[in-house]
């Protein structure tokens, strides 16, 4: 089952015949019944594994699709622009929609606006939104409704499309397997007669106006489980309305002019384009008193995920103390839609020709963005670096304003980051608390100009090195023992689930339950104690105050920490030398925090919260704080699980269920 | 009057402009003391703005305003016709593959027969202000105003950040540079040359950059040495420019040549000051050697951090050429390097606003010959330069003075 699965039914079939043969051979033996049972269990197991693999393959296929957005984009570029001219002086559009197993296409007035015959991708329902007055393509999406949850995304998308828009649907390969009733009903409400009865490997095309007439629908049923319906080609005409009818009558202000430009071009942003009650695009959050970061440039690093960028910029512009004039969005590639989003909010955006591939491409984009930021703001001593898939906390700038002087004065600091790698719902508690950590969390952080200009920029990884910029920044050659300041409760939230190094499972396991501060104007506690030497005093004070936990208990159990609140507890784990994280990793795993590499440590000490108590973990004897361990206490050692073949698969499968 | 109307317009949009019109500033400068002390009450005469002119020039700091559409709508309502000149943002020019940024460089507001020329100044790396050239695009109205007569825009220009002064003249409150005469002085040689980024990229395509740790380290040291030298000489008021290898690095690759091993500056001998040596010593750069004397072939070398040397060559002007001298320590031989005459322009190099010869190509070619585009790692300062001439030998009795090595 390594390859694609045009017919998932076949292989289990084969297995069954093999199983039957085996069964016959054993027919006359005494243990027949027992063997049959074992066989059945085995068969079930094989099926489960095969299915898991199938799911993983599908994911991989989806992931690979993600990797070549540039190619998609070229097509789009070519095709989006063309219909403008013939369309403008015509009142009727000729629309052709084709659906088949291996190819779909949509043509408007003879110009192809969608064509997908690539193997092993583009499966599911393709949706195109046209402007009802101009015929321009406003959105193009494909929902792989063969896979779970994609139908929900489609419903969400269709709900956001404005009334009156022209919707075109076509199925490639298979689009019904996980198309649930809710989605079918939405399609039905758009006027589709076939949608409620769409089934396995049917071919289907549909053109209609949202909240209005149906221009055509064609359907071909699949005659048998193993074959596809015949290709269908729908040819129809769409009558264009006048421009006035297609636009909302918002009052003529500069803001609404931006809104109008945006809403006549792209679709899928919901209420921002609502005629009756459009959501604001200017936020005017309260200014921050004595804002020390008002003049710090903000670089937003973006790719081609315009919906993410939209969400991100909304939260950024709503944060208290934001200064929109200092924001620049850097888009990796000549993508139009992210630029439309940037312009909607009246911000400035810069496009960057992609250099190299994958991680190296991201690294080069980071470098270009940072260099450009310091060129554009030559007076700046710092830059705030954000990514397009982050929500920004309402007190993000307040948090930075209170802490930035540390970065200016304390040479032993590498960055200030809004993100606590270990700050999950169940492990972070105090919005006013800051830590020093030896790792570089990223995900919303402040970079010192001198660090960038004098150290990082001159030796930034070149395009042929396929390195992650953040991994590179974490290397000892760059970090040189310096630390970052982080909050206990993160001031950013990582919501992206599609991305180069990201997928739904990974996001669910490591990011979804991250705590995110929503309290405005948090006064940070004891900021001065974050300075290099003061912090040591603070840690010693904490350890002096801490109650030692019962080391005979299992640290993974909830009962390991007493049912108290607001106390400080300490536990000691075994850590033979500075790089021995064996026990820590096991502990992190059972506490359900970040365990993929070591994060959040400071000299062999980790600080987090358990049951609203401050919970300190000291690695003995590597940590200098080991001296706090009474001789009677034996540091806890947790063994890594024995390396079993395939042990990872059930773990992944289990997570898939949740 | 047009200026009054314009000032009304910009103040209604809260846009802080300041007057940089050389003709008016010239008049203001003559009366500066009187204007500063006068309370700014109503005056009957119109002494400064009212002379018949085609236009009046104002400056605008980019970062102090938001590019607002509203301004133009109001301007139109008031009867102004306006023209906007945009072009590529030079602050991003040095970087490959960025786009999306064109910035406004000049605005012209015209009402009846008078026009306001609004020059947009941008802050750039090196703590200075820059304005762009005024270039018309094909479709633009070439007769909108007499462009040739404009005082700003023939070339891009570089300026110090000015201190401003609010004055009241002809019944109008305007901001002007605090010291009009020094502003006018600065204006007269403000011409700015952008580094040739495109050619530099082509150069690196041909000869990939040295990314070794040594190269990174040397560049870092050379940059900080240059910053220190610039600070020291600027404090003394000694005008200098990038010379020899440092100039070649700027012109050819927009960066320090990593194998050059020293930093070279040029200074006109007429700008020589005896304070130079103590000032550098005070800045932590001891004198390494001194060759020649003020009257002939003067050359100073200072020891920077870790073997990076700062060479200052003094240039002597003749009727039809300029030259500097060299001295071979062990033999007392003199050399003379000839250059065609040149003037000085500003440029930006390693986050510093510095001078380079405006006629850079001739300067570099004189020094390095027609093959200056090809990197050479072995360079003999006595024979390699194509403009080197043997210039006799120092008399033995002068050696003690003209060959000093520390």
Question: How would you portray this structure in words?
Answer:
The complex is a heterodimer of chains A (658) and B (406). Chain A is α+β, with helices and mostly antiparallel strands and 658 residues long. Chain A has 3 domains: 92-244, no CATH class; 298-527, Spore Coat Polysaccharide Biosynthesis Protein SpsA, Chain A; 531-628, no CATH class. Helix content of chain A is 33%, strand content 21%. Chain A is built from 19 helices and 24 strands. In chain A, strands 12-11-10-13-17-15-18-16 form an 8-stranded mixed beta sheet, sandwiched between helices. A 5-stranded antiparallel beta sheet of chain A has the order 5-4-6-7-8, with helices on one face. In chain A, helix 8 packs antiparallel against helix 10 (336-344) and helix 9 runs parallel beside helix 10 (336-344). Chain B is α+β, with helices and mostly antiparallel strands and 406 residues long. Chain B is 27% helix and 31% strand. Chain B is built from 11 helices and 21 strands. The N and C termini of chain B lie far apart (68 Å). The mean pLDDT of chain B is 90. The interface between A and B is medium-sized, with 27 and 27 residues. Strand 12 of chain A pairs antiparallel with strand 4 (98-99) of chain B.
Quick overview of this protein structure:
With 658 residues, chain A is α+β, with helices and mostly antiparallel strands. Chain A has 19 helices and 24 strands. In chain A, the strands form five sheets. Chain A has an eight-stranded mixed β-sheet with strand order 12-11-10-13-17-15-18-16, with helices on both faces.
């Amino acid at each position: 089952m390594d390859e694609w699965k045009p017919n998932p039914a076949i292989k289990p079939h084969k297995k069954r015949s093999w199983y039957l043969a085996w069964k016959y051979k054993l027919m006359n033996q005494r243990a027949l019944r027992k063997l049959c049972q074992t066989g059945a269990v085995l068969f079930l197991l094989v099926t489960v594994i095969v299915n898991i693999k199938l799911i993983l393959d599908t994911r991989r296929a989806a992931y690979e699709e993600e990797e070549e957005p540039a190619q998609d984009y070229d097509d789009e570029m070519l095709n989006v622009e063309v219909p403008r001219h013939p369309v403008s002086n015509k009142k009727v559009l000729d629309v052709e929609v084709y659906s088949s197993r291996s190819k779909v296409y949509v043509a408007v007035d003879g110009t192809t606006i969608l064509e997908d015959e690539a193997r092993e991708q583009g499966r599911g329902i393709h949706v195109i939104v046209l402007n009802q007055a101009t015929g321009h393509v406003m959105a193009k999406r494909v929902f792989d409704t063969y896979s779970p949850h994609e139908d929900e995304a489609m419903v969400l998308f269709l709900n956001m499309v404005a009334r009156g828009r022209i919707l075109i649907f076509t199925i490639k390969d298979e689009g019904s397997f996980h198309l649930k009733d809710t989605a079918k009903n939405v399609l039905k409400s758009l006027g589709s007669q076939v949608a409620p009865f769409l089934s396995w490997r049917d071919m289907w095309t549909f053109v209609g106006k949202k909240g209005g007439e149906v221009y055509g629908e064609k359907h071909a049923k699949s005659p048998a489980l193993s074959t596809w319906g015949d290709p269908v080609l729908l040819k129809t005409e769409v009558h264009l309305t006048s421009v006035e009818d297609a636009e909302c009558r918002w009052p003529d202000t500069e803001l609404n002019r931006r809104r109008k430009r945006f809403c006549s071009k792209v679709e899928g942003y919901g209420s921002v384009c609502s005629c009756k009650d459009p959501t604001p695009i200017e936020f005017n959050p309260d200014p921050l008193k004595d804002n020390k970061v008002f003049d710090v440039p903000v670089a937003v690093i973006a790719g081609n995920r315009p919906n993410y960028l939209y969400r991100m910029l909304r939260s950024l512009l709503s944060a208290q103390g934001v200064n929109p004039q200092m924001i620049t969005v850097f888009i990796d590639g000549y993508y139009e839609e992210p630029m439309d989003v940037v312009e909607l909010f009246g911000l400035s955006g810069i496009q960057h020709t992609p250099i190299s591939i994958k991680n190296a491409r991201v690294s080069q984009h980071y470098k270009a963005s940072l260099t450009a930021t310091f060129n554009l703001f030559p007076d700046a001593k710092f830059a705030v670096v954000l990514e397009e898939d982050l929500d920004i906390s309402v007190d993000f700038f307040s948090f930075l304003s209170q802490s930035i002087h540390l970065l200016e004065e304390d040479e032993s600091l590498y960055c200030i980051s809004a993100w606590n790698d270990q700050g999950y719902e169940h492990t972070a508690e105090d919005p006013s608390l800051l830590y020093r950590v030896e790792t570089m969390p990223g995900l919303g952080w402040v970079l010192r100009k001198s660090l960038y200009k004098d150290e990082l920029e001159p030796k930034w990884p070149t395009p042929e090195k396929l390195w992650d910029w953040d991994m590179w920044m974490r290397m000892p050659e760059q970090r040189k023992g310096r630390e970052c300041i982080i909050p206990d409760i993160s001031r950013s939230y990582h919501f992206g689930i599609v991305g180069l190094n990201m997928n739904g499972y990974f996001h669910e396991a490591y990011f979804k339950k991250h705590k995110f501060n929503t309290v405005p104007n948090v006064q940070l506690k004891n900021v001065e104690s974050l300075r290099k030497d003061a912090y040591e005093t603070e840690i010693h004070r904490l350890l002096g105050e801490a109650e030692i936990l019962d080391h005979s208990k299992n640290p993974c159990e909830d009962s390991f920490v007493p049912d108290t609140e607001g106390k400080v507890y300490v536990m000691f784990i075994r850590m033979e030398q500075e790089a021995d994280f064996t026990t820590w990793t096991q502990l992190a795993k059972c506490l359900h925090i970040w365990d993929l590499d070591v994060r959040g440590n400071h000299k062999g000490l980790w600080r987090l919260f358990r049951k609203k108590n401050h919970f300190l973990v000291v690695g003995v004897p590597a940590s200098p704080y080991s001296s706090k361990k009474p001789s009677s206490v034996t540091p806890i050692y947790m063994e890594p699980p024995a390396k079993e073949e395939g042990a990872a698969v059930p773990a992944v499968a289990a997570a898939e269920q949740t | 009057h047009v200026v009054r109307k314009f000032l009304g317009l910009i103040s209604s949009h809260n846009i802080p402009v300041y007057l940089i019109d050389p003709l008016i500033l010239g008049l203001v400068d003559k009366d500066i003391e009187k204007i500063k002390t006068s309370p700014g009450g109503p005056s009957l005469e119109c002494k400064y703005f009212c002379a018949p002119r085609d236009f009046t020039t104002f400056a605008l700091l980019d970062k102090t305003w938001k590019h607002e559409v509203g301004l133009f709508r109001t301007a139109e309502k008031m009867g102004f016709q306006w023209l906007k000149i945009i072009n590529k943002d030079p602050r991003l020019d040095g970087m490959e593959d960025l786009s999306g940024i064109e910035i406004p460089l000049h605005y012209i507001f015209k009402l009846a027969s008078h026009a306001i020329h609004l020059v947009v100044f941008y802050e750039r790396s090196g703590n200075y202000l820059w304005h762009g050239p005024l270039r018309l695009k094909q479709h633009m109205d070439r007769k909108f105003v007499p462009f040739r007569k404009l005082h700003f825009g023939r070339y891009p220009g570089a300026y110090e950040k000015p201190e401003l002064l609010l004055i009241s003249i002809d019944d109008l409150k305007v901001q002007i540079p605090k010291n009009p005469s020094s502003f006018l002085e600065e204006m007269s040689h403000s011409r700015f040359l952008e580094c040739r980024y495109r050619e530099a990229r082509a150069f690196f395509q041909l000869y990939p950059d040295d990314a070794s740790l040594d190269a990174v380290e040397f560049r870092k040291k050379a940059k900080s040495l240059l910053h220190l030298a610039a600070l020291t000489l600027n404090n003394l008021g000694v005008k200098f420019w990038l010379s020899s290898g440092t100039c070649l690095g700027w012109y050819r690759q927009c960066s320090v040549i990593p194998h050059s091993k020293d930093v070279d500056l040029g200074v006109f001998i007429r700008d020589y000051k005896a304070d130079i040596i103590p000032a550098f010593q005070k800045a932590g750069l001891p004198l390494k050697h001194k060759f020649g004397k003020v009257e002939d072939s003067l050359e100073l070398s200072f020891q920077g951090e870790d073997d990076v040397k700062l060479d200052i060559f003094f240039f002597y002007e003749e009727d039809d050429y300029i030259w500097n001298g060299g001295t071979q320590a062990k033999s007392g031989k003199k050399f003379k390097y000839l250059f065609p005459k040149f003037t000085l322009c500003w440029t930006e190099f390693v986050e510093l606003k510095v001078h380079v010869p405006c006629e850079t190509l001739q300067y570099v070619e004189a020094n390095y010959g027609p093959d200056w585009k090809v990197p050479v790692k072995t360079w003999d300062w006595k024979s390699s330069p194509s403009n080197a001439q043997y210039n006799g030998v120092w008399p033995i009795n002068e050696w003690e003075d003209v060959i000093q090595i520390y």
